[in-house]
Amino acid sequence: MEVEDIVCNILSRLPVKSLMICKSVCKYWRGLISSPGFIRLQLNKSRENPRYIAHHSAWDTHLLKFDEDIFEKIPFPGNNMICSFNGLICWTNYFHRHQPDTSLKIHICNPATREVLLLPKVPHYKHLARIGVAVGSKINEYKVYGFFGNASKSHDEHWVCKAYSSMTKSWKGICHVSEIPMSSSKHISINGIVYWFMRSKRNASIPGSILGIDWEGNFIRISLPREAIITKDLFFVDFEGCLSLVSSTKACIRGFDIWVLKDGNESIWVKKFTDTIPIIEFRRVLPVSARKNEILFAHKKNLCLVYGVNNKTWRVNWLDNYRRCFRSAFAFTESLVPLVNSLIDKYDKLKKAISNHRYHVGDFFAILS
Q1: In the sheet where 242-248 sits, what is the strand order?
Q2: What is the DSSP string of 264-290?
Q3: Smallest Cα–Cα separation from 199: which of 234, 245, 161?
Q4: DSSP character for 156?
């Protein structure tokens, strides 16, 4: 193993906050820590020990580390956390479904590096109804899907779905739709496909089906499992890389089922297991999230329960010093992934130019400038 590999292996285990300080040690370390290879290495190391990030109704956001307590309070430029991916957070500044376009803002943030990107506005549309983020194969590749319209009520018009790409840094129209997803916070991205719950035709307060949009912009409809108990308390989780649902049970008010999608084309679901939440009823759970082999159930107050999937055990965490409601919680991986003028983008362009054998000396300086 070369000296540089040893240095990278050691540095990649440090927290991002420490790495930001290490960049000031010397030019060599700064270049090393800023390199695409190191950024990927650090992210992979960080994925081995992910945390949770939680947003509270009192406009506060915290990184949570449940073998201790509240880890760190983080300031953000919004009041509605949409999702977390590759160390990045998507934020908006709206609570309600219809927000005037003059004040609507969508941000992508890296809470570890404190870098913030404001997405460009979408012209000609006054309201954003729903939003979701699909994650691509590259660590800095994502698409933000939004459902936009001009009317004040969702049933007064057809909505348009648009997608913002981190690669093109612009919005692109997908298609017009007659209905919109139920909620922005209850969406999930798995293998480049973003999923939302759609309202039931019989009861608008509960989900009736699932809408998916793949990386190419194709719409997918998936039926919910017929045997599942469908209430408003239905949650998406990523279980072993598969789209999965957490639902309540008939047998017990504290019981829950885990359903895993085996075939999206035929809407074939398999019940993975059933268990019971200690202390609280399932309907008292607000956000549900998953990381590696565990599932987080956050109570509406200051209680978090972490379920170990492999050994069927629970860890109960009382946040005694913070008695406020959870709005959302997601698995979070601390990273150095950049947002603007990414070295990763420049590196990929340079590698593509070399592989195509279509370059001049001046091209290198243009790409790296």
Answers
A1: 235-239, 242-248, 255-263, 268-276
A2: TTTTEEEEEEEEE-SSS-GGGEEEEEE
A3: 234
A4: G
Structure tokens belonging to residue 292: 């590696």
Tokens in use for 347?
A: 């590196």
Rg for the chain, CA atoms, rounded = 22
Q: 13 near 334, Cβ under 8 Å?
A: no
Confidence of residue 242 (pLDDT cuts 50, 70, 90): very high
- Residue pair 221/211 in contact by the 8 Å Cβ criterion: yes
pLDDT score for 325: 63
Note the pLDDT of residue 200: 94
Beta bridge partners of 295: 290, 307
Cα–Cα distance for residue pair 311/240, rounded to 1 Å: 15
Which amino acid is located at 211 in the chain? Answer: L
pTM (two decimals): 0.84
Torsion of Cα atoms, 40 then 7 then 47 then 294, to 10°: 170
Cβ-based neighbour number of residue 42 at 10 Å: 25
**What would the DSSP string read from start to end of 190-215?**
ETTEEEEEEE-SS-TTSEEEEEEE-T
> Length of the chain, please?
369
Cα separation, 246 vs 257, in Å, equals 6
Query: Two tokens at 28?
Result: 């060599």
Q: Among positive and negative, which fits the CA dihedral 32, 37, 43, 48?
A: negative
Distance CA 169, CA 368 (A): 18
Q: Is the pLDDT of residue 356 over 70?
A: no
CA–CA gap between residue 216 and residue 201 (Å, rounded): 28
